[in-house]
Amino acid sequence: MSRPSPSRSPGQATVFADRRLLARAGLALVLANVRYWTTVAPEVRAQLARWRTRAMRIEDPQLRTLALRTLHAEGFASEVAATLATLAPRRHRTSTVRGIVALEVMYDYLDGLTEQPAPDPLANGRQLFKAFTDALDPTADPDDDYYYAHRPSGQDDGGYLMELAAAVRDALACLPAAATLAPTMSRAAARCVEAEVLSHAAAHTDSAQVERWARENANGSGLQWREYLAGAASSVLAVHALIALAGNGQATVEHAGGLDDLYLALGVLSTMLDSIVDFEQDAANGTLAYIGHYEDSSTIAERLVDVARQAARQARDTPAGAHHVMTMAGIAAYYTSAPSATSELAWPVTSRLQAELRPLITPTLAVMRTWRLAKRIRPRIDVIASGHA
Q1: In a 3-state reduction of DSSP, which class is residue 237?
Q2: Structural domain of residue 287, as residue ranges?
Q3: How many domains does the chain have?
Q4: Burial of 18 from C-beta contacts in 10 A (0-12 / 13-18 / 19+)
Q5: Is residue 164 within 8 Å of residue 51, measured between CB atoms?
Q6: pTM (two decimals)
Q7: Burial profile 191-204: b = 16 or more Cβ within 10 angstroms, e = fewer
């Protein structure tokens, strides 16, 4: 059944169809691709292989299985996060990639750990995620026994978390502006941790805590509490962006604050779109559905359009703003091209956002659709090829 095309909302032509913005964003996309495939992608693959090899040496079978499963399932997240490393100067790019990949691998592993039942979900989550914030603190004294204090007795990852944290700190030590940006990184990481821990705990305890925390912290962000919660939960993106900025010796505290604000908004788009396209799967798993805080799909669509416009305005005053605008287009294209993006629940949101972001999103959307098609037909090609072998 054909669906009506959503009308473009007022204000689009002045934000996302600006010719100068499109030209700058297009150039940023080309430069990012050249840098990524020549200098970033090989290092990302090497680092993911390194952490897979290390995870295989975890003696505890439950923790080893979780670490390997998250590396397999979430490896793409590390590849995407590392695109930000294309903004780092060439001489600091390798260190930037290593820091981003190690932090993302740690985040995904901790995310999986905190989703598991625990007698005290809040205490367990905060204790485990202390490893995440410690990774950004050069004065921290990591201790696996401390991180796993609320886990079943005898669980031991053999130093896996500590090695990930050490890899992040070693990488940051090589970046010229890391010390200047450290307080902003720590704030973004702490925001991410609290949103994640409260959201996971809400599946087992009182979900009112999540709303109270988000309302208290949303003031001054330009976001409603529901969007603030979603953006905070994806603030690992902000930390990645700040690690990339730390490679620029001219970066300032003001630059860091503006970038953090921008990625808080981009995190809203990432979390909310993920929630709406994965709604059925999240419901089956008992995972908190961020879209559950809204009355209907049309309200979600209106809020995400507002957030996208806010992000575009913020990007204008941010170093490498054109690259970050393309990151926003990439986030939107990735989720709105998913097969479930055309469901009855998702379509009013995904189609409206696509319409709002055109023509900025058009090339990225074409790439994502081609990539998804290739993923679907690749197994068939392999079967045909093996039959002729």
Answers
A1: helix
A2: 12-374
A3: 1
A4: middle
A5: yes
A6: 0.91
A7: bbbbbbbbbbbbee
- The model's confidence at residue 389, banded by pLDDT at 50, 70 and 90, is low
Give the C-alpha separation, 81 to 263, whole Å: 12
Domain assignment of residue 203, yes or no: yes
Domain assignment present for 276:
yes
Structure confidence by residue, pLDDT tens digits, 106-152: 999 999 998 888 888 889 999 999 999 999 998 887 777 788 888 87
CATH number (domain holding residue 204)? 1.10.600
Instruction: In whole angstroms, give the CA distance from residue 357 to residue 309.
Output: 9
Q: What is the DSSP letter of 36?
A: I
* C-alpha triplet 136, 139, 145: angle, nearest 5°: 80
For residue 286, tell me if it sits in a domain. yes
The 10s digit of each residue's pLDDT in 365-379 is 998 999 888 877 766
95 within domain boundaries: yes
d(CA 68, CA 109): 9
